[in-house]
Amino acid sequence: MMKCLLLGAGGLMTIESDSTTETLIVRIDRSKIVPHGKPALSRMLLRLHMYRSTANVKACRSYYEEPLRVDEEHLVWRSIVLAKRQPKWVFVQANTFLEDDEVTLKE
Asked: With contact defined as beta carbons under 8 Å apart, do 6 and 13 qualify?
């Protein structure tokens, strides 16, 4: 979907990367989401739906191989994102108990 928005949505999304400073900036033009982004995604999903509904594997594969192809630039983006990866959050919620009209909190 990202490649669909990058290539076929009329400048809706741009991605700027700098491997020396390891920064990745994704810019989305909000004014182009409805007029350009929605139709681009609709076209892509409709074509995939038609190919799957008609079991046209050959056409689907030829259409879908391009968006799945990983370019060298995408590998640079991936390395930047993985270098700045943060650990997963662990959310711990304490339990409350009501004992003899008194609320106690146990962690």
From this structure: yes
